Structures are given as structure tokens and as C-alpha cells.
Predict the 3D structure of the following.
Amino acid sequence: MTPTALTTSELGATGLKITRVGFGAWAIGGGGYEGGWGPQDDEDSIAAIRHALALGVNWIDTAAHYGFGHSERVIGRALAGVEPRPYVFTKGGLPEGPGRTKTRSLRRDSLLREVEGSRERLGVETIDLYQIHWPVPEEEIEEGWSTLAELKERGVVRHIGVSNFNARQLRRAQAIAPVETLQPPYSLIDRRIEVELLPVAEREGIGIIVYSPMASGLLSGAMTRERIAALPADDWRRRAEELREPQLTRNLELVERLRQVAARHDTTPGAVAVAWTLRNPAVNGAIAGFRRPEQVDPIVAAANLTLDKHDIATILRRK
Ligand SMILES: NC(=O)c1ccc[n+]([C@@H]2O[C@H](COP(=O)([O-])OP(=O)(O)OC[C@H]3O[C@@H](n4cnc5c(N)ncnc54)[C@H](OP(=O)(O)O)[C@@H]3O)[C@@H](O)[C@H]2O)c1
């Protein structure tokens, strides 16, 4: 694949032209905390980022919460001296508490501290997109969103968005300042946003980047019962409902149908899962997580994979 081959999309009204698949940097935050992914080799992470950029991927999504700054620090290392650098999107609102635990604050002073930490770790002067990670505590949404509007106004960040907001919370933010982007979960096993959020966001011209398009690796084709049983103790997926019965059997059957479709297109189940999210006209980009360089090619290929009616019928077939 050549760098110019990836298709792009206008991210809402931001003016950013993003590749349809972006690099998700949660897993490269590593393990050792509640949201951790087990041990991760930073050199693998850096190689994966550089490989994705070499293929033409032009944005990275991270958060201060991922490894409590570790993901951002690794991205900073990977991007040192890279010109032109990709767009860097990060998030705040889950500052670190004692003993590597997550706290939740959308207070102005807390977000101002967080954004400074992110800039420093990422090594960027201006963050391209700053997002509220979760609408929690709910009563602080207005203070948090006003703070992001202020950061944009001051030029500390270029664009502002929200993640994990529902339509009602989105409207609350919109009453203060325009929400430029939305980052919800979306995959074949989590289609909740199709009912209300996607139509509302599309109508309002909000850019949409969806997360966990492969259900955090479950739909990649590489997840088996044996692998699930052997996941490291500090991989959060050990506690995930989707990887437990009765859902697991159903989800692995879905992977087999993705495999059939993948065979038709000479690609992988994971790429088909990602391409399925991109089929929705409201979705601008899918954020796919990578931990090693060899994982990147088969999934980035999803940016250019078009599924037909026959493929969709196979994927959605019920017993
Ligand atoms: N805003 C939020 O609250 C939120 C929440 C979740 C995620 N996100 C964002 O969305 C991004 C993506 O979500 P995600 O990381 O949960 O899930 P994902 O993209 O659905 O799955 C990523 C995982 O799939 C596996 N994988 C990737 N390529 C593969 C390949 N070619 N073959 C086999 N396995 C492969 C890797 O894990 P293994 O190799 O370990 O299986 C990888 O970490 C995150 O990195 C983050 O930026 C945001």
C-alpha cells in the first residue's frame, strides 16, 4: 500500500482531512492499572506508530488517562523530529489519583493542569483536538465544556470535542459552545449510537470518530477461548462481559462470519469489522488500536475496503 492510497474524510466542520482509519493509542499505555492492557514493549509501540504513519495514517488518538501519561509520552518519542507530524488528538477529565487510580474531574483548574501535562508529554505546541473523555461527574459538564471552549479561544488547542456523551449531554454542551467532534463506541457488537446519537450528530454537522471498532480485539480474528484464558492479570479484557458467556459464543460466531467475508476480499476479520463501522455515512473515521507494527497493515486496509450487500447479509446473518 502506498501512502497516497488511503481514503480520507472531512472531520465535521473542523477542516481536518483525516484518513478513514486512525491510530488508537490506548493499549500502548501498557499495564499496571485498572484500564491496562498487560505488558507492552515501548519499542514495539513506537515501531507501530511509525509504520502506520509510513502507510499514510494521519492521526493518532490518545488520552492522558492511557497509562497515566505513558501513551502520550511514547507518542512524543515516536513523533520527535517527524515532519509533517500527524494530527494528535487527546483527552482529559480522568486525572490520576493515588496509587495509579483514576479520578474524575471536569473542573477548570484540573483540566488546565491536564492539558499542560498532555502538551508537554506529547511534545506539541498546540493539540489538534482536545476531548472530554467521559461526561462525569455529570454536574461538571458545563464547567468542563466552558474550559475547553476557553482553551480553543486561547489557541492552546485547535479543536474541541467530547467522548462518551449521549444526545442530551451533547445538547447541554452545544448550548455553551459548538461541539466539533464526537467520539463514541461503535462496532458490530455495540450499535447503541445508531438510534439517536449518530442521527443527531450528523444533522448538526459534528465530526464523528468511533472507538473500539474491533471490540478491543475481540473481532480481530486473533481472539480465541485459549487466548482469553491466558490474558495477563492486568489486561482489563479479562473482566469484559463480551469475552464471557453467554456473549462469547455469539461473538465468536460473528468472527467466523467476518472471516468468510474477509476471504472474499483477501483480508482479515478485523479489517471487515472496521470497514463495517465506516459504512455508516455519519462516521468520518474509525480509531483502531495497534500494539505492534505487523498489526497495522491488515487493519489500515479497511480504509479502502467496500462491503457490498452480500457481505453485509453474511455478517448480520442470524441463526
Ligand atoms: N473515548 C473512549 O472512552 C475510548 C474507549 C476505548 C477506546 N478508545 C480509543 O479507540 C482506540 C481503539 O479502541 P480499542 O483499542 O479499544 O479497540 P480496537 O481498535 O477495537 O482493538 C484494538 C486491539 O485489537 C488487536 N489488534 C489490532 N490489530 C490487530 C491485528 N491486525 N490482528 C490481530 N489483533 C489485532 C490489538 O490487541 P491485542 O493484540 O492485544 O489483541 C489491539 O490493541 C483506542 O486505542 C483509543 O484511542 C477510546
